[in-house]
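The following block was generated as part of the benchmark described in Methods. Ligand: zinc ion.
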Amino acid sequence: MFILFGFRTREQMVSTSSMVCEVCGVQASQALVKRSTKFSLFFIPLFPVRPSAYYLRCAHCATMRPARQPAAAAGR
Ligand SMILES: [Zn+2]
């Protein structure tokens, strides 16, 4: 008998807004991305192993930088 287990990290786009990027200085679309890692058993994600993190991804330079947690998602 064998057991398949591991960790799976998923990214989910929460919202987008047009702002000036802190890295490249260009006004471009900034996507708010939620990244979460879950423990999986037989490829089925079961429970998160660390708190979700939020990042801003610039559409111009594709840099991802940490973002503050949005207030609407604070309870999740
Ligand atoms: Zn940028």
